[in-house]
Design a protein that fits this description.
By secondary structure, the protein is of the alpha+beta class. The chain has six helices and four strands, in the order αβααβααββα. It is found in: Golgi apparatus membrane.
Length: 152
């Protein structure tokens, strides 16, 4: 197993540790999502612009992105996304731009994920996680069913 795939497993494991806290089933790593995420990470690294892919914009997959000026460990990326839980209101569930990474990670109905990472010429790194089926569906009622509060 290469260094890259170990890093990807690290991101998956972090997701599943957090998902367990919320009482939702673990995600499986998907080859197809991973190759798409890897390709897109490479695109981001070449353009150095952090923006969502057309695939995610048209609802084909969920997508989380991360940028750092250094080689970011997978676990740290997942921690940063998950930290948005502090801005999420379980009393008033729904989409907000400050909690999208968190809700994508713990979305109950999401079954599989893919992860890609690429390094830009300046040494900064881009991480792309893709989710299927996508979470963050903005239909009313979906958040109550899919974003469950962490167990005590």
């Amino acid at each position: 197993m290469g260094k890259q795939s170990r890093k990807l497993k690290e991101v998956l494991k972090a997701h599943n540790d957090y998902r367990k806290k919320h009482g939702v089933p673990p995600l499986k790593l998907c080859k197809k999502l991973t190759s798409g995420a890897q390709q897109y990470a490479a695109t981001l690294a070449s353009t150095k612009v952090l923006q969502h892919s057309p695939e995610s914009s048209n609802g084909k997959c969920g997508e989380n992105l991360a940028w750092a000026s250094y080689d970011q460990p997978g676990k740290e990326v997942a921690e940063r996304w998950y930290a948005e839980i502090k801005n999420y209101s379980f009393q008033n569930p729904g989409f907000s731009s400050g909690t999208g990474h968190f809700t994508a990670m713990v979305w109950k109905n999401t079954k599989k994920m893919g992860v890609g990472k690429a390094t830009a010429s300046d040494g900064s790194t881009f991480v792309v996680a893709r989710y299927d089926p996508p979470g963050n569906v903005v239909n009313p009622g979906f958040y109550e069913e899919n974003v469950l509060p962490p167990k005590k």
